[in-house]
Amino acid sequence: MTEYDRVPYPTAPHQQTHPGRMAAVGKLFGMNPAPAGRRRVLEIGCGNGGNLIPMAYALAESRFVGVDLAAGAVAEAQRRVDDLELPNVELHAGDLREIDSGWGEFDYIVAHGLYSWVPADVRECLLAVCRERLADEGIAFVSYNAYPGGYARQMLRDMMPYRTRDVPDAREKIARARELLQALQRSSVNALSEEATLLLDREDGTLYHDELAPCNERFYFHDFAAAARRHGLQYLGEAEPHQMFDATGHLPGDIIEREQYMDFLKGRRFRQTLLCHAERPLRRETSAEQMADFLFSASSRGVRMRTANTAAVAVAAALDEVYPLPLPFDDLAPYAGGAESLAPLLYGMMVTGFLDLHVYDFPCQETVTARPRASRLARYQVARSSQVTSACHIDVELDDIGRKLLPLLDGTRAHDEIAAVLGLDRESTASRLEWLASRGLLEA
User: Fold this and answer.
1) Is the pTM of this model over 0.90?
2) Hey, which of 214, 323, 345, 420 has its CA 20 to 30 A from 206?
3) How far apart are CA 215 and CA 122, in angstroms?
4) d(CA 353, CA 240)
Protein backbone atom coordinates (compact mmCIF):
# COMPACT_ATOMS: atom_id res chain seq x y z
CA MET A 1 0.00 0.00 0.00
CA THR A 2 1.35 3.43 -0.98
CA GLU A 3 0.87 6.76 0.79
CA TYR A 4 -1.56 7.64 -2.02
CA ASP A 5 -3.69 4.67 -0.97
CA ARG A 6 -3.64 5.79 2.68
CA VAL A 7 -4.48 9.42 1.86
CA PRO A 8 -6.13 9.71 -1.58
CA TYR A 9 -4.90 12.49 -3.82
CA PRO A 10 -7.79 14.51 -5.29
CA THR A 11 -7.81 14.66 -9.07
CA ALA A 12 -9.81 17.03 -11.24
CA PRO A 13 -10.00 18.25 -14.84
CA HIS A 14 -7.11 20.50 -15.89
CA GLN A 15 -7.89 22.31 -19.11
CA GLN A 16 -4.18 22.92 -19.73
CA THR A 17 -3.66 19.15 -20.11
CA HIS A 18 -6.40 18.72 -22.71
CA PRO A 19 -5.05 17.49 -26.08
CA GLY A 20 -6.84 20.38 -27.76
CA ARG A 21 -4.89 22.90 -25.68
CA MET A 22 -1.57 21.21 -26.38
CA ALA A 23 -2.40 20.99 -30.08
CA ALA A 24 -3.18 24.72 -30.19
CA VAL A 25 0.20 25.62 -28.68
CA GLY A 26 1.94 23.21 -31.04
CA LYS A 27 0.21 24.76 -34.03
CA LEU A 28 1.10 28.28 -32.86
CA PHE A 29 4.79 27.36 -33.00
CA GLY A 30 4.75 25.52 -36.31
CA MET A 31 3.89 21.92 -35.44
CA ASN A 32 1.27 19.76 -37.13
CA PRO A 33 -0.31 18.01 -34.13
CA ALA A 34 -2.63 15.01 -34.30
CA PRO A 35 -6.15 15.97 -35.50
CA ALA A 36 -8.97 16.57 -33.08
CA GLY A 37 -10.86 13.48 -32.00
CA ARG A 38 -8.35 10.86 -33.20
CA ARG A 39 -5.53 10.76 -30.69
CA ARG A 40 -3.62 8.40 -28.42
CA VAL A 41 -3.17 9.95 -24.99
CA LEU A 42 -1.10 8.68 -22.06
CA GLU A 43 -1.53 10.15 -18.58
CA ILE A 44 1.23 9.24 -16.13
CA GLY A 45 -0.01 9.68 -12.58
CA CYS A 46 -3.69 9.45 -13.54
CA GLY A 47 -4.89 8.82 -9.96
CA ASN A 48 -8.59 8.04 -9.83
CA GLY A 49 -9.19 9.37 -13.32
CA GLY A 50 -10.53 12.82 -12.45
CA ASN A 51 -8.65 14.34 -15.37
CA LEU A 52 -8.41 11.42 -17.81
CA ILE A 53 -11.98 10.10 -17.70
CA PRO A 54 -13.75 13.34 -18.72
CA MET A 55 -11.38 13.68 -21.68
CA ALA A 56 -12.02 10.08 -22.70
CA TYR A 57 -15.78 10.61 -22.47
CA ALA A 58 -15.70 13.75 -24.64
CA LEU A 59 -13.16 12.39 -27.15
CA ALA A 60 -14.77 9.04 -27.84
CA GLU A 61 -12.70 8.37 -31.00
CA SER A 62 -9.42 8.78 -29.14
CA ARG A 63 -7.63 6.17 -27.02
CA PHE A 64 -6.60 6.95 -23.45
CA VAL A 65 -4.13 5.07 -21.28
CA GLY A 66 -3.61 5.89 -17.61
CA VAL A 67 -1.00 4.62 -15.17
CA ASP A 68 -0.52 5.28 -11.47
CA LEU A 69 1.45 3.69 -8.66
CA ALA A 70 -1.54 3.82 -6.28
CA ALA A 71 -3.53 0.62 -6.88
CA GLY A 72 -6.50 1.91 -4.90
CA ALA A 73 -6.79 5.05 -7.02
CA VAL A 74 -6.54 3.02 -10.22
CA ALA A 75 -9.22 0.62 -8.96
CA GLU A 76 -11.51 3.60 -8.32
CA ALA A 77 -10.79 4.92 -11.82
CA GLN A 78 -11.61 1.50 -13.28
CA ARG A 79 -14.95 1.46 -11.45
CA ARG A 80 -15.81 4.81 -12.98
CA VAL A 81 -14.76 3.64 -16.44
CA ASP A 82 -16.90 0.51 -16.07
CA ASP A 83 -19.89 2.49 -14.80
CA LEU A 84 -19.66 4.88 -17.75
CA GLU A 85 -18.97 2.02 -20.20
CA LEU A 86 -15.99 3.75 -21.80
CA PRO A 87 -14.34 1.37 -24.28
CA ASN A 88 -11.51 3.81 -25.10
CA VAL A 89 -9.78 3.74 -21.70
CA GLU A 90 -7.04 1.40 -20.50
CA LEU A 91 -5.72 1.65 -16.94
CA HIS A 92 -2.60 0.26 -15.29
CA ALA A 93 -1.56 0.14 -11.64
CA GLY A 94 2.21 0.26 -11.74
CA ASP A 95 5.47 2.16 -11.98
CA LEU A 96 6.15 4.48 -14.92
CA ARG A 97 9.53 2.73 -15.24
CA GLU A 98 7.60 -0.27 -16.57
CA ILE A 99 6.40 1.65 -19.64
CA ASP A 100 8.09 0.13 -22.68
CA SER A 101 7.68 -0.31 -26.42
CA GLY A 102 4.72 -2.63 -25.85
CA TRP A 103 2.67 0.41 -24.87
CA GLY A 104 3.01 1.87 -28.36
CA GLU A 105 3.27 5.53 -29.37
CA PHE A 106 1.23 8.44 -28.10
CA ASP A 107 0.27 11.76 -29.64
CA TYR A 108 0.06 13.36 -26.20
CA ILE A 109 1.61 12.48 -22.85
CA VAL A 110 0.44 14.15 -19.63
CA ALA A 111 2.46 14.17 -16.41
CA HIS A 112 0.79 16.72 -14.16
CA GLY A 113 1.97 17.11 -10.57
CA LEU A 114 4.61 14.39 -10.86
CA TYR A 115 8.07 15.65 -11.85
CA SER A 116 8.78 17.60 -8.64
CA TRP A 117 7.52 14.83 -6.39
CA VAL A 118 9.55 11.83 -7.52
CA PRO A 119 13.24 10.91 -7.03
CA ALA A 120 15.87 11.94 -9.58
CA ASP A 121 16.01 8.53 -11.29
CA VAL A 122 12.25 8.55 -11.80
CA ARG A 123 12.40 12.07 -13.23
CA GLU A 124 14.98 10.88 -15.74
CA CYS A 125 12.82 7.90 -16.61
CA LEU A 126 9.80 10.15 -17.12
CA LEU A 127 11.69 12.23 -19.69
CA ALA A 128 12.97 9.04 -21.33
CA VAL A 129 9.39 7.75 -21.65
CA CYS A 130 8.35 11.05 -23.23
CA ARG A 131 11.14 10.73 -25.78
CA GLU A 132 10.61 7.05 -26.55
CA ARG A 133 6.82 6.93 -26.56
CA LEU A 134 5.96 10.24 -28.27
CA ALA A 135 4.90 10.12 -31.92
CA ASP A 136 6.87 12.28 -34.37
CA GLU A 137 4.47 15.21 -33.91
CA GLY A 138 3.78 14.29 -30.30
CA ILE A 139 3.63 16.73 -27.38
CA ALA A 140 4.29 16.05 -23.69
CA PHE A 141 2.93 18.10 -20.79
CA VAL A 142 5.15 18.18 -17.68
CA SER A 143 4.38 20.41 -14.71
CA TYR A 144 6.81 21.17 -11.90
CA ASN A 145 7.66 23.61 -9.13
CA ALA A 146 9.98 26.40 -10.23
CA TYR A 147 12.53 28.81 -8.83
CA PRO A 148 12.83 31.66 -8.02
CA GLY A 149 9.17 31.93 -7.02
CA GLY A 150 9.47 28.66 -5.13
CA TYR A 151 11.86 30.02 -2.49
CA ALA A 152 9.10 31.26 -0.15
CA ARG A 153 7.23 27.97 -0.56
CA GLN A 154 10.48 26.11 0.12
CA MET A 155 10.73 27.79 3.53
CA LEU A 156 7.29 26.46 4.42
CA ARG A 157 8.29 23.13 2.94
CA ASP A 158 11.20 23.03 5.43
CA MET A 159 9.04 24.10 8.37
CA MET A 160 6.13 21.69 7.97
CA PRO A 161 8.10 18.41 7.88
CA TYR A 162 10.07 19.67 10.90
CA ARG A 163 6.83 20.44 12.75
CA THR A 164 5.44 16.96 11.96
CA ARG A 165 8.69 14.97 12.16
CA ASP A 166 7.60 12.82 15.12
CA VAL A 167 4.02 12.22 13.96
CA PRO A 168 3.49 8.81 12.29
CA ASP A 169 -0.23 9.22 11.57
CA ALA A 170 -1.00 10.91 8.25
CA ARG A 171 -4.14 12.70 9.45
CA GLU A 172 -2.35 14.03 12.50
CA LYS A 173 0.47 15.25 10.27
CA ILE A 174 -2.04 17.20 8.19
CA ALA A 175 -3.64 18.71 11.32
CA ARG A 176 -0.26 19.77 12.75
CA ALA A 177 0.76 21.27 9.42
CA ARG A 178 -2.46 23.29 9.27
CA GLU A 179 -1.86 24.61 12.79
CA LEU A 180 1.57 25.84 11.71
CA LEU A 181 0.17 27.44 8.55
CA GLN A 182 -2.53 29.23 10.54
CA ALA A 183 0.14 30.66 12.84
CA LEU A 184 2.26 31.77 9.88
CA GLN A 185 -0.80 33.27 8.21
CA ARG A 186 -1.02 35.68 11.14
CA SER A 187 2.69 36.48 11.06
CA SER A 188 4.20 39.79 10.00
CA VAL A 189 6.38 38.14 7.34
CA ASN A 190 4.36 38.99 4.24
CA ALA A 191 5.87 36.39 1.90
CA LEU A 192 5.28 33.55 4.36
CA SER A 193 1.80 34.81 5.28
CA GLU A 194 0.74 34.88 1.62
CA GLU A 195 2.11 31.40 0.96
CA ALA A 196 0.47 30.03 4.12
CA THR A 197 -2.88 31.43 3.00
CA LEU A 198 -2.54 29.71 -0.38
CA LEU A 199 -1.71 26.36 1.23
CA LEU A 200 -4.55 26.54 3.74
CA ASP A 201 -7.00 26.62 0.82
CA ARG A 202 -5.80 23.21 -0.37
CA GLU A 203 -7.55 19.94 0.28
CA ASP A 204 -5.98 17.61 2.82
CA GLY A 205 -4.80 15.14 0.18
CA THR A 206 -3.12 17.87 -1.86
CA LEU A 207 -1.43 19.40 1.18
CA TYR A 208 -0.19 16.02 2.38
CA HIS A 209 1.24 14.79 -0.92
CA ASP A 210 2.47 18.09 -2.34
CA GLU A 211 3.99 19.73 0.73
CA LEU A 212 4.59 16.99 3.32
CA ALA A 213 5.92 14.38 0.91
CA PRO A 214 9.54 13.24 1.36
CA CYS A 215 10.33 14.43 -2.16
CA ASN A 216 9.36 17.90 -3.36
CA GLU A 217 11.93 19.57 -5.58
CA ARG A 218 12.01 22.92 -7.34
CA PHE A 219 13.93 23.70 -10.50
CA TYR A 220 15.23 26.64 -12.45
CA PHE A 221 13.74 26.52 -15.90
CA HIS A 222 17.12 26.35 -17.67
CA ASP A 223 18.00 23.24 -15.63
CA PHE A 224 14.72 21.56 -16.59
CA ALA A 225 15.28 22.45 -20.26
CA ALA A 226 18.78 20.98 -20.09
CA ALA A 227 17.43 17.74 -18.61
CA ALA A 228 14.91 17.55 -21.47
CA ARG A 229 17.68 18.09 -24.05
CA ARG A 230 19.68 15.19 -22.60
CA HIS A 231 16.73 12.98 -23.53
CA GLY A 232 16.32 14.31 -27.07
CA LEU A 233 13.45 16.65 -26.20
CA GLN A 234 13.09 20.38 -26.72
CA TYR A 235 11.05 23.14 -25.15
CA LEU A 236 7.91 23.78 -27.18
CA GLY A 237 6.15 26.26 -24.93
CA GLU A 238 3.85 26.71 -21.98
CA ALA A 239 0.33 25.29 -21.75
CA GLU A 240 -0.69 28.90 -21.09
CA PRO A 241 1.16 30.48 -24.03
CA HIS A 242 0.65 34.11 -22.96
CA GLN A 243 3.16 33.39 -20.19
CA MET A 244 5.87 33.20 -22.88
CA PHE A 245 5.61 36.71 -24.29
CA ASP A 246 8.18 39.24 -23.12
CA ALA A 247 6.33 42.32 -21.91
CA THR A 248 9.58 44.33 -21.77
CA GLY A 249 10.61 43.49 -25.33
CA HIS A 250 14.25 43.70 -24.30
CA LEU A 251 15.16 40.35 -22.73
CA PRO A 252 18.35 38.88 -24.23
CA GLY A 253 19.25 35.45 -25.53
CA ASP A 254 17.47 32.50 -27.12
CA ILE A 255 14.09 31.11 -26.07
CA ILE A 256 15.54 29.31 -23.03
CA GLU A 257 17.37 32.40 -21.74
CA ARG A 258 14.35 34.64 -22.26
CA GLU A 259 12.08 32.20 -20.45
CA GLN A 260 14.53 32.02 -17.55
CA TYR A 261 14.75 35.81 -17.31
CA MET A 262 10.95 36.03 -17.31
CA ASP A 263 10.86 33.60 -14.40
CA PHE A 264 13.25 35.89 -12.54
CA LEU A 265 11.11 38.93 -13.28
CA LYS A 266 7.77 37.26 -12.49
CA GLY A 267 8.96 35.23 -9.53
CA ARG A 268 7.34 32.21 -11.17
CA ARG A 269 6.72 29.33 -8.77
CA PHE A 270 5.10 26.74 -11.06
CA ARG A 271 5.41 25.77 -14.71
CA GLN A 272 3.22 23.79 -17.09
CA THR A 273 5.71 23.06 -19.83
CA LEU A 274 5.19 21.40 -23.20
CA LEU A 275 7.96 19.34 -24.82
CA CYS A 276 8.43 17.79 -28.26
CA HIS A 277 11.16 15.91 -30.12
CA ALA A 278 14.41 17.87 -30.35
CA GLU A 279 14.72 17.37 -34.10
CA ARG A 280 11.25 18.81 -34.80
CA PRO A 281 11.66 22.25 -36.48
CA LEU A 282 9.70 24.98 -34.69
CA ARG A 283 8.68 28.46 -35.77
CA ARG A 284 9.36 30.78 -32.87
CA GLU A 285 8.11 33.95 -34.53
CA THR A 286 4.35 34.29 -34.13
CA SER A 287 2.11 36.78 -35.90
CA ALA A 288 -1.39 38.15 -36.11
CA GLU A 289 -1.86 36.42 -39.47
CA GLN A 290 -1.91 33.04 -37.69
CA MET A 291 -5.07 33.91 -35.77
CA ALA A 292 -7.36 32.94 -38.67
CA ASP A 293 -6.43 29.29 -38.03
CA PHE A 294 -7.74 29.16 -34.45
CA LEU A 295 -10.89 29.27 -32.36
CA PHE A 296 -11.06 31.51 -29.28
CA SER A 297 -12.63 31.55 -25.84
CA ALA A 298 -12.60 34.19 -23.13
CA SER A 299 -14.61 35.41 -20.19
CA SER A 300 -14.65 39.06 -19.22
CA ARG A 301 -16.28 38.28 -15.87
CA GLY A 302 -14.22 40.01 -13.25
CA VAL A 303 -11.97 41.55 -15.92
CA ARG A 304 -11.98 45.27 -16.57
CA MET A 305 -11.36 46.10 -20.23
CA ARG A 306 -8.94 49.03 -20.07
CA THR A 307 -9.40 50.17 -23.62
CA ALA A 308 -11.36 52.70 -25.61
CA ASN A 309 -11.24 50.39 -28.65
CA THR A 310 -14.91 49.70 -29.36
CA ALA A 311 -13.99 46.70 -31.56
CA ALA A 312 -12.06 45.11 -28.70
CA VAL A 313 -14.99 45.63 -26.35
CA ALA A 314 -17.41 44.12 -28.90
CA VAL A 315 -15.19 41.07 -29.50
CA ALA A 316 -14.76 40.55 -25.76
CA ALA A 317 -18.52 40.74 -25.24
CA ALA A 318 -19.14 38.22 -28.04
CA LEU A 319 -16.66 35.76 -26.49
CA ASP A 320 -18.10 36.29 -23.03
CA GLU A 321 -21.61 35.61 -24.31
CA VAL A 322 -20.76 32.00 -25.24
CA TYR A 323 -17.97 31.28 -22.73
CA PRO A 324 -16.63 28.63 -22.08
CA LEU A 325 -17.44 27.55 -25.64
CA PRO A 326 -15.06 28.87 -28.33
CA LEU A 327 -15.86 30.91 -31.41
CA PRO A 328 -14.10 30.64 -34.80
CA PHE A 329 -12.30 33.57 -36.39
CA ASP A 330 -14.95 34.14 -39.05
CA ASP A 331 -17.73 34.45 -36.47
CA LEU A 332 -15.81 37.20 -34.67
CA ALA A 333 -14.81 39.18 -37.75
CA PRO A 334 -18.03 41.27 -37.95
CA TYR A 335 -17.53 42.55 -34.38
CA ALA A 336 -14.15 44.01 -35.35
CA GLY A 337 -15.22 45.43 -38.70
CA GLY A 338 -13.58 42.70 -40.75
CA ALA A 339 -10.84 40.08 -40.75
CA GLU A 340 -7.97 42.55 -41.26
CA SER A 341 -8.91 44.43 -38.09
CA LEU A 342 -9.71 41.30 -36.12
CA ALA A 343 -6.39 39.47 -36.56
CA PRO A 344 -4.15 41.97 -34.71
CA LEU A 345 -6.86 42.47 -32.11
CA LEU A 346 -7.04 38.77 -31.28
CA TYR A 347 -3.26 38.49 -31.33
CA GLY A 348 -2.99 41.24 -28.74
CA MET A 349 -5.65 39.56 -26.60
CA MET A 350 -3.77 36.27 -26.83
CA VAL A 351 -0.41 37.78 -25.89
CA THR A 352 -1.88 39.52 -22.83
CA GLY A 353 -3.67 36.37 -21.67
CA PHE A 354 -7.22 37.63 -22.16
CA LEU A 355 -8.25 34.72 -24.36
CA ASP A 356 -7.38 31.07 -24.99
CA LEU A 357 -6.55 29.50 -28.34
CA HIS A 358 -8.27 26.34 -29.56
CA VAL A 359 -8.09 24.06 -32.56
CA TYR A 360 -11.00 21.93 -31.40
CA ASP A 361 -14.68 22.88 -31.18
CA PHE A 362 -15.94 21.07 -28.09
CA PRO A 363 -18.96 18.87 -28.93
CA CYS A 364 -22.09 19.76 -27.00
CA GLN A 365 -25.70 20.84 -27.49
CA GLU A 366 -25.59 24.64 -27.41
CA THR A 367 -29.36 25.18 -27.53
CA VAL A 368 -32.07 23.68 -25.34
CA THR A 369 -34.11 21.03 -27.12
CA ALA A 370 -37.70 19.99 -26.38
CA ARG A 371 -36.45 17.04 -24.32
CA PRO A 372 -33.02 18.14 -23.10
CA ARG A 373 -30.33 15.66 -22.22
CA ALA A 374 -27.35 16.38 -19.99
CA SER A 375 -24.13 14.53 -20.68
CA ARG A 376 -24.04 11.05 -19.19
CA LEU A 377 -20.77 11.96 -17.52
CA ALA A 378 -22.31 14.97 -15.75
CA ARG A 379 -25.33 12.92 -14.63
CA TYR A 380 -22.94 10.32 -13.24
CA GLN A 381 -20.82 12.91 -11.44
CA VAL A 382 -23.71 14.87 -9.92
CA ALA A 383 -24.76 11.84 -7.87
CA ARG A 384 -21.43 12.14 -6.06
CA SER A 385 -20.53 15.83 -6.11
CA SER A 386 -21.79 19.33 -6.75
CA GLN A 387 -19.03 19.71 -9.36
CA VAL A 388 -19.49 18.26 -12.83
CA THR A 389 -17.25 18.46 -15.90
CA SER A 390 -18.35 20.26 -19.04
CA ALA A 391 -17.52 19.35 -22.63
CA CYS A 392 -14.84 22.06 -22.43
CA HIS A 393 -13.01 20.08 -19.71
CA ILE A 394 -13.90 22.62 -17.01
CA ASP A 395 -15.54 21.90 -13.67
CA VAL A 396 -18.93 23.56 -13.16
CA GLU A 397 -20.29 24.12 -9.65
CA LEU A 398 -24.03 23.37 -9.26
CA ASP A 399 -26.35 24.71 -6.59
CA ASP A 400 -28.97 22.54 -4.87
CA ILE A 401 -31.57 23.01 -7.60
CA GLY A 402 -28.97 22.31 -10.27
CA ARG A 403 -28.10 19.04 -8.55
CA LYS A 404 -31.77 18.04 -8.62
CA LEU A 405 -32.27 19.23 -12.20
CA LEU A 406 -29.35 17.52 -13.91
CA PRO A 407 -30.36 13.88 -13.23
CA LEU A 408 -33.78 14.60 -14.77
CA LEU A 409 -32.20 15.50 -18.10
CA ASP A 410 -31.99 12.07 -19.70
CA GLY A 411 -33.74 13.05 -22.92
CA THR A 412 -37.15 11.62 -21.95
CA ARG A 413 -38.76 14.62 -20.21
CA ALA A 414 -40.32 17.73 -21.69
CA HIS A 415 -39.89 21.12 -20.05
CA ASP A 416 -43.27 21.05 -18.29
CA GLU A 417 -42.49 17.66 -16.75
CA ILE A 418 -39.12 18.90 -15.51
CA ALA A 419 -40.68 22.03 -14.03
CA ALA A 420 -43.34 19.98 -12.24
CA VAL A 421 -40.80 17.66 -10.62
CA LEU A 422 -38.71 20.61 -9.41
CA GLY A 423 -41.67 22.74 -8.37
CA LEU A 424 -40.53 25.61 -10.60
CA ASP A 425 -42.43 27.73 -13.11
CA ARG A 426 -41.72 27.29 -16.80
CA GLU A 427 -39.72 30.51 -17.08
CA SER A 428 -37.36 29.60 -14.23
CA THR A 429 -36.90 26.12 -15.65
CA ALA A 430 -36.11 27.49 -19.10
CA SER A 431 -33.56 29.88 -17.62
CA ARG A 432 -31.78 27.07 -15.78
CA LEU A 433 -31.74 24.84 -18.85
CA GLU A 434 -30.24 27.63 -20.93
CA TRP A 435 -27.55 28.12 -18.28
CA LEU A 436 -26.62 24.42 -18.43
CA ALA A 437 -26.43 24.61 -22.22
CA SER A 438 -24.22 27.68 -22.06
CA ARG A 439 -21.81 25.79 -19.79
CA GLY A 440 -21.40 22.88 -22.21
CA LEU A 441 -23.31 20.36 -20.08
CA LEU A 442 -26.00 19.31 -22.57
CA GLU A 443 -25.47 16.89 -25.45
CA ALA A 444 -27.33 16.07 -28.63
Assistant:
1) yes
2) 323
3) 11
4) 8
